[in-house]
């Protein structure tokens, strides 16, 4: 079995963008309105992703709303709440139309004028709808004041408490940026995810919440290239052991070259690595050297460890990181049998 823990619904029907356009035209008076979209249109939008999953041998994708589209930096808390409800309802529909293939992960109604306590109603609503986790944006205002407190700050603690009470899993994921110096996909996302890894590792969060499960995508923003830098910083600052702190996080494999994947497998705790390609996103362009899309990283992962049993990375670790995931899968897929394809 192969579980990709990092997917976004980037192929949503155009009605979603039209809805957002109408919503942004009345920022001063946001209203809660349903999204008028035909189930058949959503089902049709899933055919190409399902074809690609079948072609690559990927059984399950954890599906969440478009990251940049979360738009936490725009409008107020009411606007973000209504927009989050629409997106989360759509993700629930996606999961309903392809049960056992797409598993829902929600966005939260984050906004610069809110606190984590304001997001909990939507978090609990999504838990009631069968979601298995939530995206958390570490840079709510998109790089402008008011700045978001670091992830280890006690400001976040009401969210961590609620997440644990629901048995949810957190995936750190930035949304849009207002900083014109940053390319959204090329630098902003990676920088925010690297920073999140650093801040979480230097915090007391896992002392206070030892069972909290947090996933940081893209190999923790590439933290594996700078391990000694942070080992040194932790010693200089009198902090706890960096490797021990890093081993409390889950990092996904949404990186797209064999050498980088090999470095992750060699230098990180294998029990904390989760397979991900983030299909349908940034790396979907065709690599002229292989004729395959850059995000088709499963062959790279296998080539990085040709003699290894990768079942932990490909699916076992995902079930540990997302304990609610098992209830979405056919019984045979969680029985311990490996049936991934080459």
Word description of this protein:
By secondary structure, the protein is an alpha/beta fold. It has helices spanning 14-24, 39-45, 47-56, 77-97, 120-128, 157-166, 184-201, 205-208, 217-222, 227-236, 242-246, 258-267, 298-304, 311-321; strands at 3-8, 60-64, 102-106, 133-136, 169-172, 214-216, 250-252, 273-274. The protein has an eight-stranded parallel sheet. α5 packs parallel to α6 (157-166) and α12 (258-267) crosses α13. The longest helix is centred in the first third of the chain and has 21 residues, at 77-97.
Tags for this model:
single chain; 342 residues; alpha/beta; 8-stranded parallel β-sheet; 9% strand
Structural class: alpha/beta
What is the share of helical residues? 40-55%
Radius of gyration: 19 Å
Poorly predicted runs are 336-342
Shape: globular
Helical region count? 14
Largest sheet: 8 strands, parallel
Give the strand content.
5-15%
What's the end-to-end separation, in Å?
11 Å
Order of strands across the main sheet: 1-2-3-4-5-6-7-8
Number of strands: 8
- Reading the helices and strands in chain order gives EHHHEHEHEHEHHEHHHEHEHH
Mean pLDDT: 94
Condensed summary:
This protein is α/β, with parallel strands linked by helices and 342 residues long. It is built from 14 helices and eight strands.
List the SSEs and their pairings:
Layout: E1 3-8, H1 14-24, H2 39-45, H3 47-56, E2 60-64, H4 77-97, E3 102-106, H5 120-128, E4 133-136, H6 157-166, E5 169-172, H7 184-201, H8 205-208, E6 214-216, H9 217-222, H10 227-236, H11 242-246, E7 250-252, H12 258-267, E8 273-274, H13 298-304, H14 311-321
């Amino acid at each position: 079995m192969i579980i990709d823990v990092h997917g976004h619904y980037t192929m949503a029907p155009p009605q979603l963008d039209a809805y957002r356009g109408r919503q942004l035209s009345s920022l001063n008076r946001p209203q809660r309105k349903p999204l008028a979209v035909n189930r058949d249109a959503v089902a049709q939008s899933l055919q190409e992703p399902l074809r690609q999953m079948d072609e690559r041998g990927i059984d399950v994708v954890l599906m969440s709303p478009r990251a940049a589209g979360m738009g936490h930096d725009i409008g107020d808390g009411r606007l973000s709440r209504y927009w989050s409800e629409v997106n989360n309802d759509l993700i629930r529909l996606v999961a309903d139309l392809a049960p056992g293939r797409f598993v829902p992960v929600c966005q939260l109604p984050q906004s610069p004028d809110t606190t984590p306590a304001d997001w909990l109603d939507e978090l609990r609503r999504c838990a009631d709808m069968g979601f298995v986790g939530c995206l958390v944006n570490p840079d709510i205002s998109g790089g402008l004041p008011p700045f978001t407190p670091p992830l280890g700050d006690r400001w976040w603690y009401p969210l961590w408490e609620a997440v644990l009470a629901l048995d949810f899993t957190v995936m750190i994921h930035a949304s849009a940026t207002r900083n014109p110096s940053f390319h959204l996909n090329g630098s902003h996302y990676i920088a925010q995810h690297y920073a999140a890894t650093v801040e979480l590792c230097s915090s007391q969060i896992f002392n206070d919440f030892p069972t909290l499960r947090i996933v940081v995508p893209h190999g923790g923003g590439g933290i594996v290239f700078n391990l000694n830098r942070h080992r040194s910083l932790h010693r200089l600052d009198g902090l706890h052991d960096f490797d021990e702190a890093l081993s409390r996080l889950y990092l996904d494999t949404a990186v797209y070259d064999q050498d980088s994947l090999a470095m992750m497998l060699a230098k990180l705790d294998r029990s904390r690595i989760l397979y991900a390609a983030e299909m349908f996103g940034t790396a979907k362009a065709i690599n002229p050297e292989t004729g395959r899309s850059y995000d088709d990283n499963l062959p790279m992962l296998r080539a990085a460890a040709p003699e290894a049993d990768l079942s932990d990375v490909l699916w076992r670790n995902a079930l540990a990181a997302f304990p609610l995931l098992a209830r979405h899968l056919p019984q045979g897929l969680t029985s311990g049998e490996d049936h991934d394809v080459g």
